[in-house]
Design goal:
The complex is a heterooctamer, with two copies of chain A (about 400 residues), two copies of chain B (about 180 residues), two copies of chain C (about 290 residues) and two copies of chain D (about 80 residues). Chain B is α/β, with parallel strands linked by helices. Chain B has helices at about 15-30, 75-85, 115-120, 130-140, 145-155, 160-180; strands spanning about 5-10, 35-40, 50-55, 70-75, 90-95, 110-115. Chain B has a single domain, classed as Pyruvate-ferredoxin oxidoreductase, PFOR, domain III (Pyruvate-ferredoxin Oxidoreductase, domain 3, 3-Layer(aba) Sandwich). Chain B has six helices and six strands, in the order E-H-E-E-E-H-E-E-H-H-H-H. Chain C contains ten helices and nine strands. In chain C, strands 3-2-4-5-7-6-9-8 form an eight-stranded mixed beta sheet, with helices on both faces. The chains are: A alpha/beta (about 400), B alpha/beta (about 180), C alpha/beta (about 290), D alpha+beta (about 80). Strand 3 (about 75-80) of chain E pairs parallel with strand 10 (about 235) of chain F, so a sheet runs across the interface. The complex binds thiamine diphosphate (2 copies), iron/sulfur cluster (6 copies) and magnesium ion (MG) (2 copies). One iron/sulfur cluster binds near residues 34, 36, 214 and 217 of chain C.
Chain lengths: ~400, ~180, ~290, ~80, ~290, ~400, ~180, ~80
């Protein structure tokens, strides 16, 4: 389906990643946003608050992040595409409701503009310390999708993608921005509506009788209906059967939760996206995401100038993690270098997938700034060297 | 054109961020270059020295921060003291004549000074000082096309003030041209 | 049976309540003598007489014994997280203003963990009806003290008696701006039914508190007997005082219970205000938000 | 005659689903005409459901039905058959 | 200078406020004309005259411009998470009842995200003083709408004007049981000082709301001028009405401001009630909790 | 230091894991508990509520888990040892304040009695799905310690240990119970007070002048003082210097957060505890924790009877993870088998540490019950077999 | 003594859990054995059939759940129907005479029946029915020592009811002894 | 003489820390005796701090000090020297 032209103001803009995210959401058809202000994400809802009244959208500033993160789920069941927006401390408060969205298979989008943590930390400065939290922050097992834009343009593009994936898989999708990308101003091209591909909600169109809100097809994703459609749906946060009724047994749990995980796991080939550059034949491969994928480039270029074959794999989807691709590469590469603005999060996945076949080196940074490319360069060179002897 | 790093410094309320925004917009939207602007945020940044960083380049910009700006536009004494040491060897320094006394000026720099406050006051609005500076910068650096800059000024300033701001821009630009031709 | 008696239709009508229930889920989980089921009758009858289009009625509950109500009602129903029924309902209602949204939940759910959402939803005057079943206790988790437990009553986490002053909920609701505020008990089935109906038909944030026995965890543990004893107590100790000053409605342990309708006023709802505001701001370019 | 007969039966009656009943006694206690009693019998769950012991007094007011937390009883009014 | 004039001690006393401040952290982050600093003077003078042992005074703030107060005061100070100053303070006070615990935070912090803690702390009547700086806006994050923003005022997330009814905070506080409730503005420095002192010396949950200018994000964006203009507005439009019914204290955009002391009553504190309860329960075996 | 005899009622009891946890806390010197009821953890606070009034403890039921998880931190600064208690949904709500405790180095204990998740899930049935959340659930980078009792006795013992570790490292410590252990009744021996070793709070005893609340010694742990001691301390959730004053720079962040992580990482040899049984010379090693470590035993015994050399490594500390030990074992063992009541959480750490040197097999269970030991047995046998050919 | 699994079934209010608790306590505290008790929790368990599981063993107990109990004590018809099929081949089934009709009784079981309700009523408190059953069970199974059981009863029942409960226990125990000696 | 002298000086005076001042004008506007004015001079931060232009009118009431959000001014009362 193509985007609704209402709201898509095609053109080239000079805007920051936060504003671009707001435009992406609008283009994706989002018409409900609930939020609670927090630096460095607030510009997103500020733009939404300005844009929505005239395009039939509903923005509400809730009393806190807990309320925001469930108001959007109410709105989804009311028929809207919906999003909430926050940053570290607020993201922590949303954890219970990420689990709720996963459990009730409520398609929605959470944006986390990462800043320096833990706790209040460095509110106005960058970090990438919420990556593991994005995957594991709610109790119990569940599956989510998380995307990592590295520019305002990608902030726009991947926000659209987030909405599309949410609808495709009836799953919460997280857009993991960081303060740099959120506050960086660059050219953003908003294409005309008819060039924007949108995944509509997968509403049930079969007979009303016998409809089951939690009965999945072969792709493990059940169809949706909305409140007011006359289905008398029941949606519960308890373990439930295909009708949505609570069933307090291990068997029901296995059936339901296994599917919630499998719908991401088994569809991961379709979901996973990375950008690769000169990975074929590379000696060293940088694995990066978000702003760090740009900071790494001067380091990579310099190392290449000095003769090291450096490839670059950039995670567009951090979750699901491109395990298969990393595994493949690990057979050819002599070292992975993983720069992150944290003390080692996604690198753990790289280590797991590499399974000892080759070296994995971290370039950690606590946050408050981006890396000095020299540190990444130095790490590349140190790997290269060891291999070359 | 290679990567050029520009820093603008001043105090809050002088339109420092808007200036950076205009340069970036001119380059990225009206001049088919690439541009990245970054500003300092946060309570610690409030009230005191304020700055914007812009990278302009013909190629896509990977690293978005500036490290050693080639061009620096300075509108307050504090900013001069704080930022001018960062300027690249042989870089261009543009200061406002009244607001900045360039003592201990580095010998390696190309220094331009402009009475932008006076020009702005002549135009009837002290506020447009930053736009005067932009016109001047456009002339003396040539980093972005003058038409692109005019376009960017027009669409970036508050509605109803376009004319005033374009005048301010032109004033600065002409002063730069004169200066270059040795007439000022 | 005589010929004449045949004039009377002896076919039994079905219990009209059943039309509103998911009978396939019966029996429900509530204990013998629990008052929650009684309030469900009131709600069903209120719905029946309200004339509302049932397709357009959604019910939202939090977690708790009362929270199970949503799952037993044959409506679009949402059993959310503990304490969060109101913000879910806010999203649902604002996404589709055509829906009549009812929040039906427990005292702990709505006023302990959910207290903030309660005061903010009332303040915003979002158009919804809140039915709060006040059994003075956390039922589902086994009888812990609630922000409604009267001073002197014992609970599993107040084994020597509660000494915290409970909320006066009608007062709290009014102080935050609720447009309709009433209190009844599970004994007052007809009044409660009427109050729920009124609330359903009221525009804005309407609030009905219903006191209900929890024999298993409140009354028996407090040596007040079973559900029936509590119902008799309500009967004997309630005083109907419509329009009473909400300030005066605090509840004490087995003390007098003032019931009635206390607030019934008109105020633009959240969406009314929004539409009026934007219409004034944007003039003709603005088309009122309809979801 | 019919009139008397009807009076004996009462204006209405109740339907009791004994298996659903949990014996709380609400219906018995608060029936305005006191025409119900808890049975001596147990149902399968072990509770004593009500029985209509004085059918002639039942007005079909459904107070019992409104009160019953288990949806196990309801009162109804006899209707004249439409002829 | 004549001989005679030497009779007068010309040595300048130091600013007594400085004794209460971490001067090594000056200048503070507040904007020119921000009213928060003014309220800090009031607080420092109130402390000074209160006779409290400063070693035993702790200050707890949430996150926000006002939240920075804790860090500038030379007391034991806790700058917690956004909205959570009250439960932190509750833990602190109950752990050591000898402490005088003051919560000093913003309107958004205490009544948006922190609203639930506010109503529960008031309900429990934990012995503490809450100073709420109401600048009608979220300052720290850049001027978003708050639950205190008057209808009609604009904010970055209400760019066309706020249409949500704000809380009437004294009313809310009273409805939950606060024993001392007052409102002043940053203009009323002497009254505010007195009110804070009274609150500090009151046993129980005492609440002082102080309206203060946020020129940067509230008044200038609403074309109300700068901090000084707001202060003049407070001066000209405030009416002192001690004992006013809290119901009547709602604030409208640039409307009349009722200030004064509204509630001042006595009620056992949380710990008083607890100790009385247990003493009765356990008799002599119980030694009153003292932390 | 020995335990305060007040509160320690020595003797042998037949009590469940929840009650034992309460007794452990009391024995450890905990005198402040804030909680919010949630199955299956509530029995802990119920016992506390009953026990505290007569031993000078303070129990308060707060309005929610957010309040509970910060009230205890206020209490710690007021001079108490303090704990909060919850289960999955409440644990999710506490995430922000686990980060706060880590950031402000507030020693305190969080108990999570795990049930089936995600979301409301299976409130009365077991799960082990919060293990990754325990480590990663709050935003930003930080370090914590997490312990996993497998019996009421251990629930008692490890709760004491949790308090001791909290004081030792000025860190939040998590006791990761599960519903089985919490609700299982067994013999619990409470030793006399003088046999219970207690780590007292490490109060500063140097000169008042120049005291710095966040200046650490060589062990990276700074000393404590409490409110009212006359130090005018400042404690902030922002990134701060050694005085506790906010400093918004990457350098301050690196100094502080690096230390927060290192005080766990570099002390991990001292912190890590596992129980090993027949791991020397083992062919297959079971890695387990909590209730699953007991469920695995029948499977292990059966496999041993059939000649497979099975070792058993049980995690007492799940975090920090015994990486070193797993790495050592991976050089000798042919297969690790990791049964968990989740879809694979701690096994990821095993995989990382094993680094491909040997096989790692999961035995996943969605929750709502424990494993059937046969499934664990079958997995052992399948490993064994493959290796033996 | 090898691992013995015991299941007790009845309805809420009969003291099923307390019975399990007493057995476990007797074994684990007063009989230097190991014992693990597990009970069913939750709203779904409320009101309806109720059960306790106890494992008693001389060795430490690894797996805490019961799979095929060797001993089953049943105090309601529902529990009989639901649980009795689980009993191990040749296991011991103890039922309350009035409350449980053992139709379709498995041939392999050792079945004992006791009029515990009647005994309890004779003692003046129907409530102690479960303790009567405990006494009986102690006698016919010998799984825990009788003194250990008496001790556990004494400390587990509400204060003031110790005497009554010990009487009840003894009543059941003696009935068991008589039955064993063929006297009943 | 001393008396007049004292009156000229006022009962008290103020201390102004000009560098801390942010020129908000609170002190000037609300001084009960209107004895302060904002200076024409800028301080290093670019603000106009107050000056005591009518020292004889200053009562040392410290209203300015209470109002000053930047702790940049305070009033004090002259004290007779203890002899
Ligand atoms: C976040 C969270 N905390 C706690 C719980 C546990 N919990 C479930 S229901 C409930 C309280 C129920 O009390 P109330 O709302 O009064 O309902 P009732 O059962 O009395 O009808 C609690 C604390 C939960 N499910 N989620
Ligand atoms: C959990 C969380 N949500 C949001 C924020 C962002 N935040 C910081 S301060 C603040 C509001 C401040 O407003 P107020 O309490 O009125 O204080 P003011 O700045 O106006 O004094 C917000 C939303 C945060 N730090 N943490
Ligand atoms: S526990 Fe109480 S509230 Fe819950 S079902 Fe039973 S009686 Fe009702
Ligand atoms: S219908 Fe009315 S009169 Fe008849 S039994 Fe029920 S309550 Fe009594
Ligand atoms: S009210 Fe219902 S459950 Fe109660 S006794 Fe009557 S029929 Fe039975
Ligand atoms: S933003 Fe507003 S509240 Fe914050 S310091 Fe500035 S003026 Fe004060
Ligand atoms: S001390 Fe009083 S009189 Fe003197 S300047 Fe200050 S406010 Fe004015
Ligand atoms: S009040 Fe303070 S900051 Fe404001 S002008 Fe006076 S001295 Fe300066
Ligand atoms: Mg309740
Ligand atoms: Mg504010």
């Amino acid at each position: 389906m193509k985007a609704d032209p209402k709201g898509v103001v095609a053109g080239a803009y000079f805007i920051d990643g936060d504003h671009a995210c707001a435009e992406g959401a609008i283009a994706a058809g989002c018409r409900f946003v609930a939020g609670y202000p927090i630096t460095p994400s607030t510009e997103i809802v500020e733009r939404i608050a300005e844009r929505f009244p005239l395009i039939g959208g509903m923005f509400i500033q809730m009393e806190d992040e807990i309320a925001s993160s469930i108001a959007i789920q109410g709105a989804v069941w009311g028929g809207k595409k919906a999003m909430t927006v926050t940053s570290g401390p607020g993201f922590s408060l949303m954890m219970e409701h990420i689990g709720l969205a996963a459990m009730t298979e409520t398609p929605c989008v959470f944006v986390d503009v990462q800043r320096g943590g833990p706790s209040t930390g460095l509110p106005t400065l960058p970090g990438q310390g919420d990556m593991m939290q994005a995957r594991w922050g709610s109790h119990g097992d569940y599956g989510i999708i998380a995307l990592c834009p590295n520019s305002p343009q990608e902030s726009f593009d991947l926000t659209i993608k987030a909405f599309n994936l949410a609808e495709q898989y009836r799953v919460p999708v997280l857009v993991m921005l960081d303060e740099c990308v959120g506050h960086m101003t660059e050219r953003v091209v908003v294409p005309p509506a008819d060039e924007i591909e949108i995944t509509p909600r997968r509403y049930w169109d079969g007979p009303k009788e016998g409809f089951l809100l939690f009965k999945a097809g072969p792709d493990r994703v059940p169809p949706m209906v909305k409140a007011g459609d006359g289905y008398n749906i029941h949606v519960t946060s308890l373990t439930h059967d295909e009708r949505g009724y609570p069933v307090m047994t291990a068997a029901a749990q296995e059936k339901l939760v296994r599917r919630l995980i499998d719908k991401i796991r088994l569809n991961s080939d379709a979901i996973v996206e990375c950008r690769e550059e000169q990975t074929a034949g590379a000696d060293v491969v940088i694995v990066s995401y978000g702003i760090t994928s740009r900071i790494a480039i001067p380091a990579i270029e310099q190392a290449r100038r000095e003769g090291v074959k450096v490839g670059h794999l950039r995670l567009i989807t951090a979750w699901p993690f491109p395990a298969k691709r990393i595994r493949e590469l690990s057979h050819h590469v002599s070292c992975f270098v993983v720069p992150e603005i944290n003390y080692g999060q996604m690198v753990r996945e790289v280590e797991r997938c590499v399974a000892g076949r080759t070296r994995v080196e971290r370039v950690s940074h606590g946050g408050g700034a981006v890396h000095n490319p020299k540190d990444i360069y130095a790490k590349i060179m140190s790997c290269g060297k060891e291999e070359r002897k | 054109m290679a990567r050029t790093e520009i820093k603008i410094g001043g105090f809050g309320g002088q339109g420092v961020i808007l200036s950076g925004y205009i340069i970036g917009r001119a380059a990225a939207i009206y001049d088919s270059k690439h541009a990245t602007m970054i500003q300092a945020f946060g309570p610690e940044a409030r009230g005191s020295a304020c700055s914007a960083q812009i990278v302009v380049s013909a190629e896509p910009i990977a690293y978005p921060y500036i490290t050693t700006p080639q061009i620096m536009i300075v509108m307050s004494q504090e900013a001069y003291t704080k930022f001018s040491p960062e300027l690249a060897e042989g870089g261009i320094l543009i200061t406002e004549e009244e607001l900045v006394k360039t003592h201990n000026l580095r010998k390696d720099l190309k220094h331009f000074s402009i009475p932008a406050t006076r020009f702005a006051e002549e135009l009837g609005r002290k506020m447009v000082l930053n736009i005067v500076m932009m016109g001047f910068m456009t002339s003396v650096t040539g980093i972005v096309g003058v038409e692109a800059m005019r376009q960017a000024v027009k669409v970036s300033v508050p509605k109803g003030t376009e004319h005033l701001n374009l005048n301010a821009f032109n004033k600065g630009f002409e002063y730069g041209e004169k200066l270059k031709s040795g007439a000022a | 049976m005589t010929e004449e008696s045949m004039d009377i239709d002896m076919s039994m009508p079905t219990n009209t309540v059943e039309e509103f229930l998911r009978m396939e889920r019966m029996p429900h989980i509530w204990c013998p003598g629990c008052g929650i089921g009684t309030t469900v009758n009131c709600f069903a009858h209120a719905l029946e007489t309200s004339g509302l289009d049932l397709k357009k009625v959604s019910i939202v509950s939090g977690i708790g014994c009362t929270g199970r109500v949503a799952g037993y009602l044959k409506l679009d129903s949402f059993h959310t997280t503990h304490g969060r029924a109101l913000p879910f309902a806010t999203g649902l209602k604002l996404a589709n203003p055509d829906l009549k949204v009812v929040v039906y939940s427990g005292d702990g759910d709505l006023t302990a963990i959910g207290g903030n959402h309660f005061i903010h939803a009332a303040r915003r005057n979002v158009d919804m009806t809140v039915i709060l079943i006040n059994n003075f206790i956390y039922g589902m988790t086994g009888g812990q003290v609630a922000p409604t437990t009267p001073i002197g009553a014992t609970a599993s986490t107040a084994p020597y008696g509660n000494f915290e002053e409970p909320f006066n909920l009608p007062y709290l609701a009014e102080s935050c701006g609720a447009v309709y505020v009433a209190r009844w008990t599970a004994y007052h089935v007809r009044h409660a039914t009427k109050a729920i109906k009124d609330a359903l038909l009221k525009r804005g944030f309407s609030f009905v508190e219903i006191l209900a026995p929890c024999p298993t965890l409140y009354s028996r543990r407090n040596r007040l007997g079973d559900g029936l004893d509590q119902m008799k107590f309500y009967k004997d100790n309630s005083e109907i005082k419509n329009g009473a000053d909400t300030k005066t409605l605090g509840l004490s342990f087995q003390g007098k219970i003032i019931v009635g309708k206390f607030v019934d006023k008109d105020k633009p709802t959240y969406l009314d205000s929004m539409n009026a505001f934007y219409a004034q701001k944007f003039g003709d370019t603005y088309s009122p938000y309809k979801g | 005659m019919a009139d008397t007969e009807q009076k004996k039966k009462g204006l209405g009656s109740v339907v009791i689903n004994a298996e659903r009943c949990k014996g709380c006694g609400f219906c018995v206690e608060f029936c305005p005409t006191h025409c119900l009693e808890l049975s001596e019998q147990y149902n399968a769950k072990g509770y004593h459901p009500p029985v209509l012991t004085l059918p002639e007094k039942c007005t079909g007011c459904n107070m019992c039905g409104l009160l019953c937390p288990d949806f196990a009883i309801y009162g109804f009014l006899f209707k004249k058959k439409k002829k």
